[in-house]
Amino acid sequence: xxxxxxxxxxxxxxxxxxxxxxxxxxxxxxxxxxxxxxxxxxxxxxxxxxxxxxxxxxxxxxxxxxxxxxxxxxxxxxxxxxxxxxxxxxxxxxxxxxxxxxxxxxxxxxxxxxxxxxxxxxxxxxxxxxxxxxxxxxxxxxxxxxxxxxxxxxxxxxxxxxxxxxxxxxxxxxxxxxxxxxxxxxxxxxxxxxxxxxxxxxxxxxxxxxxxxxxxxxxxxxxxxxxxxxxxxxxxxxxxxxxxxxxxxxxxxxxxxxxxxxxxxxxxxxxxxxxxxxxxxxxxxxxxxxxxxxxxxxxxxxxxxxxxxxxxxxxxxx
Length: 318
Prior knowledge:
About 10% of the residues are buried. With about 325 residues, this protein is an alpha+beta fold. It starts with a helix and ends with a helix. The chain contains 9 helices and 12 strands. The longest helix has about 70 residues, at about 190-265. α3 (about 130-145) packs across α5 (about 160-170). Belongs to the band 7/mec-2 family.
């Protein structure tokens, strides 16, 4: 019976060892299967040396010999540790920093950096801490670019500053396998005294623009009124001239018809004496229609003109 017990124990130990071996084999086998998420990469080292980069999907590596590279990045006040590398566009929000402009104004600048990793090998092996390196590079570039500008230029040329920073950072970070897509300056905070001076300057500029606009409006109104008066005078003069021309034409036509009629009944004599006499009589009528106390003197030459009345008498007699 003792031997039976020993045999049972021995068989049990052999079975346990077998099962243990099977479990270890399965664990080692499954440790060689790596699933990489979409838009991520995994850097694999074999015996401490770079071997290959795993792409999204199911990948197989040699257990024990191959090992994913752990990425430890420190940026700002944060810490990130992972075996996968995110290939999507990422954002770095830097803390505020002091910048001195060309006109010696100290201000606080807050910037954001958008970047994307294009080469995982360079991002790991060409720089020890990529986010921290990008942060320090952005800060030094901000000081360099804005230090050559005055305060007014910094406020008015923010788009040009962003583009200049993007170009500079993209060229500098190309050796790290990084593509800088955008740089955005969020806040520019000068000292309180400078802000008050800028506020007063803006108010004075608004007042000046209002005065200039009002003066321009008054000037345009005066010009329009003068143009209107000028046009009215021109139209009135043109109307009077046309009226005189038409009156002269009417008188000419009337004289022509009268002359034609007189020439028929005066046996071809000149009818001008009749017309002169007619005008003279009208003038005498106007002279005598005024104050009755006035004495009207008839000039001597009137006798020659009044002789034309005989012509009129003969005319109407016929």
